[in-house]
Amino acid sequence: MRITVDQAAAKLMSGDVVAVPTETVYGLAASINSEEGVAKVFHVKGRPSNNPLIIHMSDAGQIDGFKPKFDASFAKLAAAFWPGPLTLVLPIDTRTILESVRAGLSTAAFRIPKHPLALALLSKTGPLVMPSANLSGKPSSTTADHVESDFGLDFPVLDGGSCQCGVESTVMIYQDQKWVIIRQGVLVPQDFVNVLGYFPAIDSGKQEKPICPGQMYRHYAPKAKLKLATEFTQGVVLGFTGVEYPKECEVLYLGELSHPETIGENLYKTLRYLDEKGIHEAFVDMRFQEAGIMKTIAERLRKAAS
Ligand code: TXA
Ligand code: MG
Q1: How sure is the predictor about 7, in pLDDT bands with cuts at 50, 70 and 90?
Q2: From the CA of 131, how far away is ligand 1's center (Å)?
Q3: Predicted pLDDT of residue 217
Q4: Which end of the chain is more exposed for a tag (fewer CB within 10 A), N or C?
Q5: 188 pLDDT above the threshold of 90
Q6: Average pLDDT of 220-243?
Q7: Across the strands, what pairs with 201?
Q8: Burial zone of 112 (CB within 10 Å; 0-12 exposed, 13-18 middle, 19+ buried)
Q9: Contact of 228 with 284, CB cutoff 8 Å
């Protein structure tokens, strides 16, 4: 059900949840102060309660309310990348944030999204939690139709069209005097060199208790079985425009390798399309260089296929 910014704000203020477009993927929003709204977010997604939520703001000054501790480099990152697809995890005063939002941690994750509807809404409501608006474990939603396909036609959605990036934000934490990427995303290590003076490392997330709790779970997976491949003879293939495939293959094109942003934008749409069409199995063409956003896309494909 498509709603307006004013209707969305009214619902959020009364403890309800609504889906909101961002430049990365759609978010499932609740007011950060509503115990009831936050509980609904976890319930609607089927999200484990030990996986914390990102707090979205319209203004970096709002972060002061959470009494965060940060290094001077935080201000540089915020100035360079907000609004935008960067989420920063900071130690906070735990009394300022519901325990359910931070899943019991003494840190919280913050981001200012770069989408006019999200910003219009946030400036009316104040900070909102927003995990991706999809059933836990499934591909994120990048259109209002995706949200309705997961949560039903009556679910309230602010329709902001198709998300420009199509892949989630990059999540970083400050550790041992350096920023570390704990979830790969739209922004890649190279993007930070000018601001930080170094390439932030990518945490593997393979520890028993990963720094980013979301890394513990299956993610981005359609019902269809994905097989990562470098050779193709037949069947459905997720491939790239301009690459030749045998004529026995039914190719679903993710985009051109020379325009990786388009591939990001199409990624979850294509994974969802497999299920819409009742396709049970698809091969994914992994013959590409894992650099820039294609490294993030490769990580998403591996998780989706795992
Ligand atoms: O692009 C995005 O980030 C989207 C849009 C809606 O903003 N949101 C999103 O949220 O992807 P979600 O909940 O699907 O993923 C957030 C990730 C999870 O893996 C979670 O574990 C991690 O951020 N996270 C949240 N708070 C954290 C914290 N305090 N410490 C470490 N990781 C945290
Ligand atoms: Mg998610």
Answers
A1: very high
A2: 6
A3: 87
A4: C
A5: yes
A6: 97
A7: 180
A8: buried
A9: yes
Quick one: which atom of ligand 1 is closest to the CA of 167? 1
pTM strictly above 0.85: yes
Residue 290, pLDDT > 90, answer yes
Q: How far apart are CA 122 and CA 119, in angstroms?
A: 5
The residue to which tokens 């019902």 are assigned: 223
- Residue (of 92, 116, 82, 113) closest to 5 by Cα position: 116
Tokens of 263: 């591939």
Number of residues in the chain: 306
Return the closest-CA partner of residue 182 out of 107, 113, 101.
107
Q: Which of 88, 80, 112 is nearest to 197 (CA)?
A: 80
Residue 218 has pLDDT above 90, yes or no: no
| Residues contacting ligand 1 via CB (< 6 Å) | 22, 24-25, 27, 51-54, 85, 87, 89, 102, 105, 107-109, 111, 113, 130-132, 168-169, 171, 182-183, 211-214
Instruction: Using DSSP bridges, classify how beta strands 235-240 and 281-285 pair: parallel, antiparallel or unpaired.
Output: parallel
Q: What is the pLDDT of residues 120-153, one digit of tens each?
A: 999 999 999 999 999 999 999 999 999 999 999 9
